[in-house]
Each structure stands twice: as C-alpha cells, then as structure tokens.
Amino acid sequence: xxxxxxxxxxxxxxxxxxxxxxxxxxxxxxxxxxxxxxxxxxxxxxxxxxxxxxxxxxxxxxxxxxxxxxxxxxxxxxxxxxxxxxxxxxxxxxxxxxxxxxxxxxxxxxxxxxxxxxxxxxxxxxxxxxxxxxxxxxxxxxxxxxxxxxxxxxxxxxxxxxxxxxxxxxxxxxxxxxxxxxxxxxxxxxxxxxxxxxxxxxxxxxxxxxxxxxxxxxxxxxxxxxxxxxxxxxxxxxxxxxxxxxxxxxxxxxxxxxxxxxxxxxxxxxxxxxxxxxxxxxxxxxxxxxxxxx
Length: 294
What we know:
Helices cover about 40% and strands about 20% of the residues. The protein has about 290 residues and is an alpha+beta fold. The protein has a domain at about 5-185. The protein has a six-stranded mixed β-sheet with strand order 1-6-3-8-9-10, sandwiched between helices. It has a two-stranded antiparallel ribbon with strand order 2-7. A two-stranded antiparallel sheet has the order 4-5. It is globular and about 55 Å long.
C-alpha cells in the first residue's frame, strides 16, 4: 500500500485531525436525524445488512452516502462518526451513489484495524492500513463504549469515547504520513501473514459465527476475491475448510460434557438442526457419547 507523501494538502484526510465539531451516530444517541430513502435504495440496504460480534467504527472523511444502523438510515457527511456495537446491523458495502473517503476501524482482540477506503459510485478499494496496538487505549475505548449503555452516564461516556477515537485518528494521520517515523516500527504497515493470523484468531474466537466473507475481507483490508486467494495461500485451506476444522476441534472438547443445543451454539450454528446437519456431513456417525439434549 502506498504511503501518503502529500497529506498536508489533502483536504479529505485532514478530517482525521479536524477540530470541528464531530457528529456522532450510535444506538444510544444520534446527532443526526434518520432520513427516508427511496424504495430502490431501501431494498439494496435490506439485502446488504451485516452484523458481527466485534465493534466497528466509521469516520466519514469526504463525500456523501447513506449509512444504516439498526434499521435507521442516516445521511453521512464529512466528520460524521458511526459507532456499530456488538451484533448491530449496518451496511455491507456501498450503494451505487456513495462516494468519498472513509476510515473503518475494526476492534479486534488487542488491536484496532484501521482501514482507509476510497469509494466512487459504490465501488471501493482499500488504500491504506494501520494496526493500533496501544492496549491501554483499546481497553479505555471498550470500557467507555460499555458505559454508553448506562442511562445515567451515556452522555459523559460518549464524550469520552469521542475523545479516545480522536487519539486513534491522530495516530492514523501520523501513520499514513510517515510509516517509518517510529523507532520501534509502531507505524509500519502490517504484513499479510500477520493479517491472516488475525483473521484466523477471529474465526477461532467465534467458530464462524457472523463471519461472512465480506466481513472477513473488510477486516483484512482487501477485496473479497483478493482475501480468498490470500487466505488459501497462507493457510492451505479455504475459509469454509478452516471453519470446519475449528468446529471439529471445539466439538471434540464439548461432546462428552454438553447438550446438543449448547454445542450448536458454541460451534456458531443458529439451531440444533443446523448443527446436526453439519455433524452428519463432517463427522463420523454418532457413537452415543454426546449428552442428551434438554
């Protein structure tokens, strides 16, 4: 990925360190009212919903677009920050009228994956990436986000969360400007092997639950097709094969101590029937060692 050599004159990216008032859209509070959109666009948003177990943030740096959050639709303008909590529904991809530059931040275990995207007429590409590994900052972000759900202090917690994200944005600005500036290589762009290792940890963490290819590709910061090629190159497996392997390992740990229903949940299945269908095709016939479902 190219380094931004003329960042000071790039008006889009100065919003990373802008002191103008930032608009926040979150489930606990929104500075912008939801809008009504046309039937065609509404149908697209409903077909392209995503949700997963990790938190995610989106900062609009330039351009315009409509972004959804839990069934509400919001006109996004520069310096708007969207906060997507655990399992909250939001858009996967961009509608055909979307354009501009955006920063997506994925809160993975012990790292913030910061992906800079450029979008034009709904087509987008990842242009830069930064891993923030400041564990204290990540802990404070998660704690402030947790507190946003408390009715007695959401306003204070949201202000703290906004301030903490401003630190992340400043680090991204510095990283995109000069990745070589840190003596400890803190701002080095990550190697693809490290990225695939992170995706593997994510898959193991949830056994494939809420792990669509589009979500994994966004986490990796590359297109769907490129991600699939990279994953097979570095693991020797397709994503589905890797998830099946993880599920078999988890099943072996649980088969003698848990019910069918519990195992189905732990292995990332939506129902016991879905788990049993997978088990029939991926495992040897039952031997009677599984605990009875209750």
